[in-house]
Amino acid sequence: MKRLIFSLMAIMGVLALSAQSIYDFKVKNDLDQEVPLSDYKGKVLLIVNTATRCGFTPQYKELEELYEKYNADGLEILDFPCNQFGAQAPGSIQEIHQFCTANFNIKFPQFDKIEVNGANEHPLYTFLKAQKGFGGFDVADQRGKMMDNMLRKRDAQYDKKSDIKWNFTKFLVSRDGRVLKRYEPTDKMSTIEADIQFEVNPVLSSIMARRSVRKYLDKPVEHEKLEMIVRAGINAPSGMNRQPWIVRVVEDQRLIADVTEIYKQKNAEQVKRDKNFKNMFRNAPNIICVCTPAKGGGELDAGLLGENIMLAAQSLGLGTCCLGGPVRFLKSEASAKFFLDRLDIPSDYQLNYIIAIGYPDEQPEAKPRDASKVKYITGNKKNSSSIKIR
What we know:
The protein contains 13 helices and 12 strands. It is an alpha+beta fold. The strands form 4 sheets. A 4-stranded mixed beta sheet has the order 4-3-5-6, covered by helices on one side. Strand 5 and strand 6 form a beta hairpin. Helix 6 packs across helix 7, helix 7 crosses helix 11 and helix 8 crosses helix 11. The radius of gyration is 26 Å and the shape is elongated. The C terminus is likely disordered.
């Protein structure tokens, strides 16, 4: 019997982990109807396992407030009642729904009761836990410390496992189906709301989603898209509107291939080590070259232009990477002069940086950002002449 259970667990785990996207899963709603999660493509999702008799049950009120505030902007909250933690979600899904409607007036969809850990866990949760494991409780917070003490008494190594620890664990999913974050039940709702704002706001979403892409599909970017992207770039702020930059967009695949041949001859060992090498611009099918005055100046304006370009590209489903190495090669290698000549750069300008651009063939994870480098200088209400740094 045990062998059969383990076999079933293994099969379910393989099926869940083989899924490429959260949209590959189906769930049952409160009417016992199967619902494909692909119905929620393009929505920002907050997926939560809930209980009606838990100390965290009042979070239903906060969840409904989030739903009412951001649903029109694309937020959906998917509620999965679960009775695995302290048997705190008894009754049928209909009884649970009646309780939540009567006590918290919830309007977000509730699905049928499921298990989120163990032999009978829903494949959706196998997938979610594989994407975002347990990150720990904030033991500086009273509730976090309480949860840590309670669970550690049961299992001293509980924090080494990715399983769901308690009711009201939440997962945030982006509009394109990426599992972004996992929140424990003790995490502040204000933190979750801030993250939701970054996802439902299209500008903030593009900023937070942009990564440096180094793998591209073998598909050139449409000319019309390049025009839109560069138009967004040249509308960046510029001191006194001097616009001290010039831009060259390379769509000529032969030109990229020809200069790459020179690069391969001069960097044979490096190219040999890279089995996926196609061209010297991170294999991107197109590049955008940004130039600034040869005598200096204009670098700040050019940087702002480049940021606009990369964010516009992100919003259109394209990947980018800002490159410096190819610039040094093009400037120092005489045999590559033909490439610069084709760019038709005025004599009083120089190539500053290159943006690789194309359809991404990877989804890199975000790299850590050091928030400690940010300090807010605020006035002290008790003494308006003083400041405090926090």
